[in-house]
Design a protein that fits this description.
5-stranded mixed β-sheet; single chain; alpha/beta; globular; 29% strand; Dna Ligase, domain 1; disordered C terminus; 6-stranded mixed β-sheet
């Protein structure tokens, strides 16, 4: 089944599986979509292995039934507040004949750029190129074949906690599936919701998930900054459960049906029924009171995200603005509130670039799953070794993952 790709979005509140069929270089055709409640994760980290395994199986099985096929390999997303990122820089002398830059020089300069001191409990997830510099000439995307004496590389290095990644791998492995690659979720989402022009002009992908809010910033076609805020939609639900004195499940249902991130004029005359606890009768509250609970938490989440964005040196270059994805972005009024806080254009990120089950997959909550399909479609030609270098695939080589590390292999080995 070389033309079948499965994306697995492992989130705090839901696990989503998307199966797509690839026909040549055409757009992926989505043939199966499955979701299940995520009971074994907290803020993107596995806290109950058996429940996570069960949720993964349910989501994949649902997608398989819809697609009418069985899958045994997945591209999985990883997120969580254990994710950290740094920028690295490497410098080497060009060793080739006639000072021509070849693949071996690229390998050496990437090795030099990723030679950063990491705590013993962390491992590199991705090495993402920003630019190469040849003899002080900046802005070079692919220097192979050029002449030069000094080669520099600027890269963005994404790291994660070893145990967190191990537990995700183990959960998928015990679900009788094999992980082909582990991809940072906001990076995957960018493949589904950002166009090349947005990445060039400067855009921010912000995934408002259940347990975390994940951020990725792009400029001049490259990723420049990633960050994670350890708050998400589940915090809003918990606030509502406490404030309304109702079970969490009821609070979630009220949030989905009546929730709003900002006060609106028409809400004054609207009332909402709140189920009681322990057999107590339901009562009615004004929608305005509901927003009084939701808005401060959403302001906090978006405010913390804004603080992370401002840490980037390219913050003032985000011309295309913010693209919101994830289930939290569907809360009414979130786009308008984000525009007020960020003081830049904000829109909902609707996944695109695929055919098939467009009605099921065209939702911001499926941005990561669809993005994993696009990521795999682009890089699967180098499936045996994503870091394998060829003259036409420089960035396939330098985009790394923990896929082989988990099985005890050296994933930066390039034979």
């Amino acid at each position: 089944m070389g033309n079948i790709i499965t994306g697995l979005d492992i989130g705090t509140t839901k696990i989503g599986a998307i199966i797509a069929e690839i026909n040549g270089d055409m757009q992926p055709k989505i043939i199966g979509v499955g979701t299940s409640p995520s009971a074994g994760l907290r803020r993107g980290v596995v806290v109950n292995l058996e429940k996570t395994i069960r949720s993964i199986k349910e989501a994949i099985n649902e997608a398989e039934r819809m697609a009418g096929i069985e899958v045994d390999e997945v591209f999985a997303g990883i997120a969580g507040d254990h994710i950290r990122s740094i920028n690295g820089r490497g410098v080497v002398a060009v060793a080739g004949q006639d000072n021509e830059i070849v693949a071996a020089d690229i390998r050496r300069v990437i090795d030099a750029a990723k030679a950063v001191a990491l705590p013993i409990d962390r491992e590199i997830l991705h090495i993402l190129p920003q630019e190469f510099v040849v003899d002080e000439q900046h802005g070079i995307k692919d220097p192979i074949g050029m002449s030069g004496v000094r080669l520099e590389a600027e890269v963005h290095i994404v790291t994660g906690a070893i145990t967190s990644a191990q537990n995700i791998y183990r959960s998928i492995d015990r679900s009788d599936r094999r992980v082909l690659d582990l991809v940072l979720e906001p990076l995957a989402s960018s493949y589904a919701v950002l166009g090349n022009d947005e990445k060039e002009l400067g855009a921010i992908v912000m995934d408002l998930g259940g347990g975390t809010t994940d951020i990725a910033m792009f400029f001049e076609g490259c990723i420049r900054h990633t960050a994670v805020v350890g708050l998400g939609g589940k915090n809003v639900t918990n606030d509502m459960a406490l404030g309304l004195r109702t079970p969490v499940d009821n609070a979630e249902a009220i949030k989905l049906k009546h929730g709003c991130s900002m006060h609106r004029q028409e809400e004054r005359d609207i009332t909402v029924e709140v189920p009681g606890v322990g057999g107590r009768p339901p009562r009615r509250i004004s929608k305005s009171y509901l927003v009084d609970i939701i808005q401060p938490r959403m302001e906090e989440i978006l405010g913390l995200a804004y603080n992370e964005i401002k840490k980037s040196t390219c913050y003032h270059l985000m011309t295309a603005g913010v693209v919101l994805t994830g289930g939290g972005s569907l809360l009414d009024g979130t786009v308008e509130l984000a525009e007020e806080i960020f003081d830049m254009p904000v829109k909902l990120g609707v996944p695109n670039g695929f055919t098939g089950l467009t009605d099921l997959a065209s939702s911001p909550m499926h941005a990561t799953g669809v993005g994993l399909i696009h990521y795999a479609h682009i890089h699967k030609n180098n499936n045996d070794e994503l870091l394998k270098q060829d003259e036409n695939g420089l960035f396939n080589w330098v985009m790394g993952s923990m896929r082989k590390w988990f099985t005890g292999m050296n994933r930066y080995e390039t034979h």
